[in-house]
């Protein structure tokens, strides 16, 4: 039987290399892993890209999503027999009809909107980026400044339509699959009260809250994030 593979999905204003520390640790533990690109164009099309990535894997898949990537894995896992579990890393776990913007605004505390810059696209929508000068403080306050500056200039823009796109109709995958949640209590993008709310209603196997960790928790705290993923791998393969 093929081993379980971890498929990592980055979120908005990030890219696949943001998982580098986690990837190194998973490979060191002998766990197969793929950090798949996320186009950040719309929930439906991004989820379809991730679904195709899971179908290319030989064996079961543990999907891991960061931030907006949580919305993507929630949809990509629906009616996807290859996916056996979900890990949400400072991530959205929307219910049917919910969207990223709505969940962010439902709870006070996010300062992300003040730092986002908009660029028009040809179809009437816009690409959004976090102001590169403000990115370290907003997105990665506990990451060394030089490393956060690299994150700022390598961030992938997200299309505004994606953030306002509701989770498609139907039962979200976290209601039927085992899930794990890990996030920091110093997240300036998604209010920690919102992260706790989404985690609690999912009734996950475990919730790990990291004191002082920023939204970029997989970069600043790769040991702890990897530990949660390994817990999930062990749970799903024993």
UniProtKB/TrEMBL annotation:
Tagged with keyword Hydrolase: yes
InterPro entries assigned: AB_hydrolase_1, AB_hydrolase_fold, Sec-Metab_Biosynth_Hydrolase
GO MF, any single term: hydrolase activity
Pfam families, per the entry: Abhydrolase_6 (PF12697)
Domain of life: Bacteria
Keywords on record: Hydrolase
Gene3D superfamilies referenced in this protein's UniProt entry, alphabetically: alpha/beta hydrolase
Keyword Hydrolase attached: yes
Domain AB hydrolase-1: 6-227
Protein name: Alpha/beta hydrolase
Taxonomic source organism: Cellulomonas fulva
């Amino acid at each position: 039987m093929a081993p379980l593979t971890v498929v990592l999905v980055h979120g908005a204003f990030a890219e696949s290399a943001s998982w580098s520390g986690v990837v190194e640790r998973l490979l060191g533990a002998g766990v197969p892993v793929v950090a798949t690109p996320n186009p950040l164009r719309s929930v439906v099309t991004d989820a379809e890209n991730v679904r195709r990535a899971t179908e290319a894997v030989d064996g079961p898949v543990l999907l891991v999503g960061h931030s907006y990537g949580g919305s993507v894995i929630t949809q990509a896992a629906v009616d996807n027999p290859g996916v056996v579990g979900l890990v949400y890393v400072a991530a959205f776990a929307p219910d049917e009809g919910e969207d990223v913007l709505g969940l962010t605004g439902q709870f006070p505390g996010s300062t992300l909107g003040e730092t986002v810059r908009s660029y028009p696209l040809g179809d009437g929508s816009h690409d959004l980026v976090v102001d590169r000068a403000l990115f370290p403080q907003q997105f990665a306050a506990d990451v060394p400044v030089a490393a956060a500056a690299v994150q700022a200039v390598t961030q992938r823009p997200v299309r505004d339509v994606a953030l306002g796109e509701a989770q498609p109709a139907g039962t979200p995958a976290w209601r039927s699959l085992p899930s794990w949640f890990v996030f920091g209590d110093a997240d300036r993008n998604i209010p920690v009260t919102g992260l706790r709310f989404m985690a609690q209603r999912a009734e996950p196997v475990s919730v790990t809250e990291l004191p002082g960790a920023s939204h970029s928790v997989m970069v600043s705290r790769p040991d702890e994030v990897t530990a949660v993923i390994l817990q999930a791998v062990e749970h799903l393969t024993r």
